[in-house]
Amino acid sequence: MHAVNESGQFFYDHAGYGYDPATETPEQGRKRCARELAAAEAERTERGWWVEWTHDQDSGYGGWYTATLYHAAPLTGERTALTSCGAVDAGDGDPYRRVVVAELAREALHPSD
């Protein structure tokens, strides 16, 4: 992929993708999804949202995690969970963690998609 930026290339290389066979090719869908995740990642950073990773106690597997996306209220600093995902099989340093964080941001930014 001739990505517009490094983030787009990262998601092209590491994230899954979908496409509408009526309107795009698999390659077009892959590029679109990479761009969407890169945009969500940038917006998450701009808004100051962060993710906390905790061991997923409900998964039944010791190495699985829950990722929770938070934001802080401007005046009080009180944190609020925006969205989360459990049963993530990605340890420290796994590039899939970055994909999960971008997916959570995309979900929080576009909840109806």
Give the key terms.
113 residues; alpha+beta; three-stranded antiparallel β-sheet; globular
Report on the architecture of this protein.
The protein has 113 residues and is α+β, with helices and mostly antiparallel strands. The chain has one domain. 40% of the residues lie in helices and 21% in strands. It has three helices and three strands, in the order H-H-E-E-E-H. It has helices spanning 6-14, 26-47, 96-109; strands at 50-55, 65-72, 79-88. It has a three-stranded antiparallel sheet. A hairpin with a 6-residue loop joins strand 2 (65-72) and strand 3 (79-88). Helix 1 packs across helix 2 and helix 2 crosses helix 3 (96-109). The longest helix is centred in the first third of the chain and has 22 residues, at 26-47. It starts with 5 loop residues before the first helix and ends with a helix.
Q: What low-confidence regions span 5 or more consecutive residues with pLDDT below 50?
A: none
Main sheet record: 3 strands, antiparallel
Count of separate structural domains: 1
Mean pLDDT: 90
- As laid out across the biggest beta sheet, the strand order is 1-2-3
Distance between the termini: 25 Å
Number of strands: 3
Global Rg:
15 Å
Broad structural category:
alpha+beta
Helical fraction equals 25-40%
Total of DSSP H or I helical runs spanning 4+ residues = 3
Strand content: 15-25%
Shape: globular
Write the layout of secondary structure elements.
Elements: H1 6-14, H2 26-47, E1 50-55, E2 65-72, E3 79-88, H3 96-109
Antiparallel strand pairs: 1-2, 2-3
Helix pairs in contact: 1-2, 2-3
